[in-house]
Amino acid sequence: MISIFATAFGTMAFMPQQKTADAPFPIALFAVMSFFWLIMMGGFATSLALGIIFCLRALRGEWARYPVIGRWVERIVGN
After folding, report:
1. What pLDDT tens digit does each residue of the chain (79 aa) get?
2. Separation between Cα atoms, residue 69 and residue 67, nearest integer Å
3. Residue 64: HSE in the Cβ half-sphere, 13 Å Cα cutoff
């Protein structure tokens, strides 16, 4: 979020103050916003898929390990 706001305000700061026909298009703003939108949608899709997978495993009574922090959590819990 910080980088999105920094890009948005940075783009606004360097835009010309007068309304002219030859004002530049804020390419950086749209490039960064679309990049972060793709990252957020990928994170949402991953979270949704893992939630469904772990829900199905829990309904069957199986234990499942989280992909990134699974070993660390098992060490803390003691399983």
Report:
1. 787 778 777 777 777 666 666 667 777 777 878 888 899 899 999 999 999 999 999 999 988 877 778 888 888 887 6
2. 6
3. 16
**Does the residue 76 lie in any domain?**
yes
Supply the range of the domain harboring residue 77. 26-79
Query: Is the residue at 30 inside a domain?
Result: yes
Residue 69: inside a domain: yes
The pTM assigned to this predicted structure is 0.55
> Environment class of residue 10 by beta-carbon count within 10 Å: exposed (0-12), middle (13-18) or buried (19+)?
middle
What is the residue-wise DSSP string for 2-19? HHHHHHHHHHHHHS-SS-
User: What whole-number distance in Å separates Cα of residue 8 and Cα of residue 11?
Assistant: 5
Tally of structural domains, the chain:
1
